Amino acid sequence: MKNALLIYPEFSPFGFWNYKEVCKLVGSKYPAAPLGMITLAALLPQEWNIRLVDMNITQLYDSDIDWADLVFIGGMLSQQVGFLQLIDRVHARGKKVVSGGPDPTSQPEVYKSSDYLVLGEAEDTIQPFLNDLQGGAKSGVYFPSGNKPDLINSPVPRFDLLSLDDYLMIGIQFSRGCPYNCEFCDIIELYGRVPRTKTPQQIVKELSVLYDLGYRGHIDFVDDNFIGHKGKVKQALRALSKWSKAYNYPFFFSTEASINLADDEDLLGLMQDVDFRYVFIGFESVSEEVLLSNQKMQNLNRKLYDDLHRIYNYGMVVNGGYIVGFDNETSETTRLIADSIEHNKICMAMVGLLYALPCTQLAHRLKQEKRLSEHINLLDPDNRDNIDQATSGLNFDTQRPRQEIIDDFVYILKEVYNGRRYFNRCLRLGLVLKVSRKHQPSFSKKLNTIRALIRLIKQLGFWPSTAYYFWRNILILLLVRPSAIEEVVNLMAMYLHFRKQTKYIVELMTRSSQNVSQYEMIASDTVTNDKEEIPTGHA
Questions:
Q1: Are 175 and 151 in contact (CB under 8 A)?
Q2: Who wins on pLDDT, 515 or 108?
Q3: Are strands 196-197 and 175-176 parallel, antiparallel or unpaired?
């Protein structure tokens, strides 16, 4: 029997998804739980003693490390600096480290100080590692077999390891992979273009486990494209609808999907039946030329206004993703992103700078074009501004002037998260959102919501810059569309985060702009000096 410590590194407080200010309103500590780590825990020998430390909600103590026989760390690119520091810290306590997750899988050389590298999907590579460990192996690298694991064999995650009340939402997963072929996306490289799904019975079982643990409220399907296989997702939704009705709708849901969700009203209806309230859609650009050049074919020839309002008719708020820095874009077409966000009532808009993620088609092309440095994906451990693509993007030699791209990026952020415009969008969305709520919170949850509202009023309801818009929105919706008040108040609460994040990023971009000319000169020299070493073919 072993003591296994699972550690999830911390994200930057200024990341788009790290809205701790909103979490504090309701007494939570962090938006989302580390689903990958608790899935790994379910794949480890169940006779082991397993302890989880999510550094986004709690501290890691030396006593935790000393307790462990083996330490597992998993993470993404934006967690890289903290991840590597954790490896050194664990080694300093004389313990061995097992590293895995999306970033180690994409660039294992960065994590070579780990004792064991378990790459790819854990359902595929964890058993060979465990076999070698039992045989006395002191180190090893375990690459994916080449055959994507069947999710039918994926276990129920160890939700019991979580302090459920610490999170605003709990994630589950129905599918992996995406059928599309976007050049900049690493999901298809990590998980393939053929969506693999769990069975409806598996989803119901996972929800039943959460129900039995006493959890109620927000469930997020973390799939990168929930509707990648429409036929199977409809089967799952029908089973979920039957289960939810039998248990009096204990949960409501959110997910990520492609824009062709709007084409299938049967699917939209099934999602409404089980109380889906939020869906994230990647729009990336408003330029057809840019979309075509980046192989975002599913977004071509769309009437976004009609598409989005069809989704709004089924009561779902659409959050949008946008990217600045593509080849073939112009300043004019880029700045039209702000107009599109405003016109289409996208309140939560994730706007970032293009990042050539390792192993993507984009990274391969840029290497061929001698525009990408060999070590560009090793983040600077001394740079605290490595947050996500909002600050760490443009890790390549851009086609148009870097300063122009940054200026456009800052322009969009300022326009989108201007207080007046943001609150106006919230109101306009609320007036068209046809909410059909199924989940009803318990009495204690309602009391907590009232306390959260009082905290929110103390901030937005009395700030000179927001008070008028906050109360105006509530009063108008009370009179015209009271069913949408909860969603609009939630979106207005998100302004606490977006205001802070936008202010920080704009100030950071303004400071960094002073060094752009120097950066471009250094980047140019780096690319020139690396020309003989950078491979010209696909890895």
A1: yes
A2: 108
A3: antiparallel
Element of type H or E holding 66: helix 62-67
Q: Which helix (H) or strand (E) holds 232?
A: helix 230-246
Query: What long-range pairs does 517-521 form, CB within 8 A, spacing at least 24?
Result: 517/403, 519/402, 520/402
Alpha carbon 320 to its chain's center = 12
Predicted confidence band at 386 (pLDDT cuts at 50, 70, 90)? low
* Sequential DSSP letters for 91-102: HHTT-EEEEESH
Pairing of strands 317-324, 276-284: parallel
213-217 CB contacts, 8 Å cutoff, 24+ apart: 213/159, 213/160, 213/164, 214/164, 215/159, 215/164, 215/170, 216/250, 216/251, 216/441, 216/442, 216/445, 217/169, 217/251, 217/252, 217/439, 217/441, 217/445
1 pLDDT band, cuts 50/70/90, is: confident
Q: Say how far apart CA 387 and CA 358 lie, in whole Å.
A: 17
Give the span between the Cα atoms of 10 and 73, in whole angstroms: 11
Over residues 406-412, the mean pLDDT reads 95
Mean local confidence (pLDDT), 164-178: 97
Candidate from 307-311, 386-390, 406-410, 439-443 with smallest mean pLDDT: 386-390
Q: Which pLDDT band holds residue 329 (cuts at 50, 70, 90)?
A: very high
Reduced to 3 states (helix: H, G, I; strand: E, B; else coil), residue 51 is: strand
Q: What's at 204, amino acid-wise?
A: V
Select from 416, 263, 413, 290 the least CA-distant residue to 345.
416
Distances in Å between the alpha carbon of 494 and those of 27, 38, 250, 377, 490? 15, 28, 24, 31, 6
The reported pLDDT for the residue numbered 84 is 96
The neighbouring-strand residues paired with 282 are 321
Predicted confidence (pLDDT) at residue 518 exceeds the cutoff of 50: no
Cα 232 to chain centroid, rounded = 23
Measured in residues, the chain has a length of: 539
Tell me which residue of 115, 94, 111, 93 sits closest to 103, measured CA to CA.
111
Kind plus residue range of the DSSP H or E element containing 221: strand 217-221
Taking the chain, what is the end-to-end CA distance rounded to the nearest angstrom? 40
List the single range of 121-125, 221-225, 247-251, 379-383 with lowest mean pLDDT: 379-383
Q: What residues contact 404, with CB distance under 8 A and at least 6 apart? A: 331
Q: Report which residue type is found at 340.
A: S
Beta strands in 102-145 (DSSP E): 116-118, 140-142
- Residue 73's pLDDT is what? 98
Q: What is the SS3 assignment for 415?
A: helix
Q: Which amino acid is at 272?
A: Q
pTM across the whole model? 0.92
